[in-house]
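1st attempt posting a full record on here, be nice pls
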Amino acid sequence: MDEMQYGLNTYGQIKRQGYPECSCGLGINKTDHYELKCKAYSWRALFFNAKKREDDLKQDLAEQSLTLKSQITTLKSQITILQEELDSAKAQIQQYKHMVFGKKSEKSKATGALAHKMKPGKKRGQQKGQKGHGRTILDLPIKEEIVELKHKQTCRRCWLPYSPMNVTDDSEVVEISVNAYKRVIKRMKYTRHPDCKCYCAPKFITAPMPPKCIPKGKFGSSMYANLLVGKFGYQIPLYRLIKQFSLYDINLSPGTVTGGFKTLLPLLEPVYDAIVAYSQTDKHWHIDETGWKVFKKIKDKKTYNWFLWVFCSAKASVYTLAPGRGLNVPQEFFNGVTDGGIISTDRYAVYNRLAIDNNLQNSYCWIHVRRDFINLASSHPKLKCWALSWVRIINKLLYINKQRVELYNKKWPFYPKQEELEAQLHLIERKCREQVHSRDLHIDGIKALRRLQKFWRGLTTFELRPKIPISNNTAESALRGPVVGRKNYYGSGSLWSAKLTAIMFSIVETLKKWNINPIQWLTKYLDECARYDNKAPWWVVNDSLPWDIPDTGFRIPLLI
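the predicted structure (as tokens):
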């Protein structure tokens, strides 16, 4: 209803009610008075309607505001949750990228609080003028080359020729030439003396065939030594070795090579047994294991998953392949250990049981403890600062221990470092005891601290034994080569090949410990076995063992 219509209706109501005429003395008539009254009622109605609409609008706006505020709060909480999930996903992706493409997690920038800071403008690596700078040229055979001018030079002004001097400008260049050759064996034949009438004796005799490691084979000991070391020392697959030898016009077939390996296996077993026995006389071992494939089904085993174990001591490295990861594998090795000792391991439960059964003492790896906190910092954004603080504390412990080991032979500088190390261990123990019962700490952080407390006794074995390493890096380094081999040739195709794998890993790594060239050692050893009808008598084995080889003879400077 519009304004004019509302005024007319109001006027009709007033007229029907019979309002008296205006007697206010303002000089307006009755009709004007009625019109003013109608307008007044009309404006009042409009005012109340507008007021009502205003109140309704305010109420609607208030309700909409409350709804929007609740929606904003919900969205903010959802954004927070999604941001946390995104940060966690990014951290995991970064961790996976770092594991696949980057350096080891222990060398990340996050853990480099104690890393050496280089001076501005200083190049990386060893500086010029310092001892040991540059590449060392070995004592190689010398082949001199005299380089002369192709054309005689004369002075451009007087045209007199230059004369040679007794002085040369010398430089050295190392070259290598690999040449395969054939041994053409010509056996001399002999006939009887013309005066010899002994018909029982043969008329002709021939010089005997020189011994070969494979009696009917085409290839000599050096060939198989290069093949064995190439596969088990450099982790090169067999098919790549065959392609490599084809560059020297040597055509090999996989069947010939594998058949030769199988024939040589019995000659290498006595050396492996001697290495195992020699390693068992030590007092400290590093132990670790990794997966390996043996593509041969055996009884009571449905998969091809085996495990490659390593037992490293200062004297030797022993590898063994077993179809399981149970206690029986290291137990078999330590059955030959009678005087006890110390084992450096990770926190696998088998090693704790092994120590109890064989009177051994555990020395757990601090690098694994540090790795726990590094993983927490990567996977839990809320625990990043807390976890990295623990990483810095452990880094300081590693640094102090490194200084302590370097000062071991110096009495007076050693004792302050020993006290500093003990103080750092007490700090770690106290800090762990205080934080493990914190209600504000995430459950994963509490689990890491409880794990630290659980293995604390084994983690402090090195405290009073400076010669015991603080980590198990020795065993892990010994498995790096086999892990590369596992990626390159996937594993072993038979039981005898698995046995050869463990034997060759043991021989090559032990020879490296004694600074002996494995290729030349294998060549000479196989030649010696060939002299005794392709057998390995005990005297040949004993004379070929790395620790019994004199400084001359078998011992050759390590070239790999």
